[in-house]
Design the sequence.
């Protein structure tokens, strides 16, 4: 398995509180991604990073921010959590952005519940 | 809008039986198609990749097919095992360009939940 660790694995928080999810990789891959997975939807891209301090928005970025200060760490922050952000969040990494020869390697997810 | 539709949404089979999962896509320009397996409580893991020129590819008991003309792919599982119980996700990559380099823009299907009973 690719060396990807997500923390925490489970979190329950109240509406309006800030939440930070962490993704740590030991593969030295350039690209890192945050996805959310909800019933009835495929995985949806929130934000991605193509290098230290280089990030860009995905298709569902509203209400989320990210930071990448080191190659190995990619943080996802919910500035003020809402119930619609209850989801399972997956971090993924890849060696190349052209994914023909480079699959996404996923962490095991963080289940976030906003009450 | 790029879309990936998978069928059936769920499937129950007996151990030892075969099954076929379907993936239809409207993604342009097509680059490649991957099948991922996602066990409960885990992240997806890549099973196989299909490029435009490939029709069939096998990975053990898993065989993927691709018909680029009809924009359909299938994943056939032979002699199913209890460990095959999982969600199977079809992911199609569209060719994109930015800053002079190409990249894959991904569209995920919702997945097919396969349950194998003893």
Sequence:
């Amino acid at each position: 398995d690719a060396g990807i660790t997500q923390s925490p694995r489970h979190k329950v928080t109240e509406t309006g509180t800030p939440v930070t999810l962490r993704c740590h990789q030991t593969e030295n891959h350039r690209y890192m991604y945050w996805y959310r997975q909800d019933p009835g939807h495929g995985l949806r891209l929130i934000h991605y990073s193509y290098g230290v301090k280089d990030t860009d928005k995905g298709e569902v970025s509203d209400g989320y921010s990210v930071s990448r200060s080191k190659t190995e760490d990619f943080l996802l922050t919910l500035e003020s959590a809402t119930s619609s952000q209850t989801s399972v969040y997956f971090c993924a990494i890849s060696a190349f952005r052209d994914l023909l020869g480079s699959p996404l390697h996923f962490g095991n997810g963080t289940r976030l519940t906003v009450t | 809008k790029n879309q990936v539709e998978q069928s059936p949404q769920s499937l129950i089979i007996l151990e030892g039986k075969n099954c076929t999962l379907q993936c239809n896509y409207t993604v342009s320009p097509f680059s490649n198609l991957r099948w991922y397996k996602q066990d409960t409580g885990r992240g997806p893991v890549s099973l196989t990749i299909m490029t435009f020129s490939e029709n069939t590819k096998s990975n053990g008991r898993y065989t993927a097919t691709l018909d680029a003309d009809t924009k359909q792919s299938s994943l056939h599982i032979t002699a199913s095992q209890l460990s095959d119980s999982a969600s199977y996700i079809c992911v199609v990559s569209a060719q994109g360009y930015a800053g002079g380099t190409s990249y894959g823009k991904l569209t995920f299907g919702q997945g097919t939940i396969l349950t194998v009973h003893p």
